[in-house]
Amino acid sequence: MKKLSIVAIVLASLAIAGEIFIYATPKEDSDEVQTRAIMHDYRVYAPVIPDTMTFCGEMVPLETYYVREALDNELIINMYRQSSTVLYFKRANRYFPIIEPILKKHNIPDDMKYLCVIESGLTNATSPAKAQGFWQFIPSTGKKYGLTIDDEIDMRNDVVASTEAACAYLRSLYNRFHSWSAAAAAYNCGENGLARRMESQGTNVYYDIRLNSETGRYVYRILAMKQIMQHPQQYGYFIRHCDLYPPIPTRTATLSGQNVDLYQFAKNNNTSYKMLRTLNPWLQTDNLKNKANRSYTVKLPTERGLLYKHIFNGKKDTRLITHI
């Protein structure tokens, strides 16, 4: 009988202890569990702001509090907009080797390639204002700087032609404002609009001009992308060389004549219509009337299908990139 009493007492004690434990342990969906999980598993870091920085060789006045905080704002936005920023890294590996030599040829600072990044994300995007292409030219400005733009051909979507035009435009803006930061701002808001603000506010320094929100952020967005893309791991981006989009090996062919059926043209050149349009996004139609009877150089793939294993020569470079 005593043994049974002892067993009963033990069982009762265990039951009481279990009840206490149940009530003392937070439920899985409780705020306390949620708070502990966030504190233990989740980290958000403020980005590192460089002590000094230049844009196109010009010093950025980071000692001024509103300059420093404006840069911080754009670093935070782009550091934590991971999906877009990763894509910028990937695309830059394909297109920077095309853009950089053209900038250099025209004596335009290399930093301007990051203007192209924030304008379009290195895609042939179209804005609500009908700006288009990597450099986001509106039709009137594109035509002014030599780009063919009509229903059949839109050279705003050709990375080489549009970069050539952008260089001419940026040089013109620099010659007027004698500052690359001001030239970049004018690229965004228009040169006459920027000139009016400079005159009314009595300064020609971009960082000291009160501007609309978009133009006021514009150069800082460029600076943030430059900083992140030149120091990826410092901002949490661990990207391997094999993760990047490689340049596509192409050959060229001449497109000429009138009423050219581009479906048949692609077939005659041993490629698909989709590949023809992908490599030549400036083509706007499937049948080129070409009333002016111009000749165009088109890019075609060097191998049907363009398998990645051919582009990479069968090698997978898993080293982390250090800059781009």
Overview of this structure, please?
The protein is mainly α and 324 residues long. It has three domains: 31 residues; 189 residues, Lysozyme; 56 residues. Helix content is 50%, strand content 6%. The chain is built from 13 helices and six strands. Strand 1 and strand 2 form a beta hairpin. The protein is globular, with a radius of gyration of 29 Å. About 2% of the residues have low confidence.
Mean pLDDT: 90
- The tally of helices reads 13
Specify Rg, calculated over alpha carbons: 29 Å
State the total count of DSSP E strands.
Answer: 6
Write down the CATH topology of the largest domain: Lysozyme
Distance between the termini: 83 Å
List low-confidence stretches: 20-24
Q: Order of helices and strands, N to C?
A: HHEEHHHHHHHHEEHHEEH
User: What is the share of helical residues?
Assistant: 40-55%
CATH class of the largest domain: Mainly Alpha
Question: Biggest sheet, in brief?
Answer: 2 strands, antiparallel
Strand order within the widest beta sheet: 1-2
Taken together, the total number of domains comes to 3
The CATH architecture designation of the largest domain is Orthogonal Bundle
Secondary-structure class: mainly alpha
Q: Classify the beta-strand content into a percent band.
A: 5-15%
Shape: globular
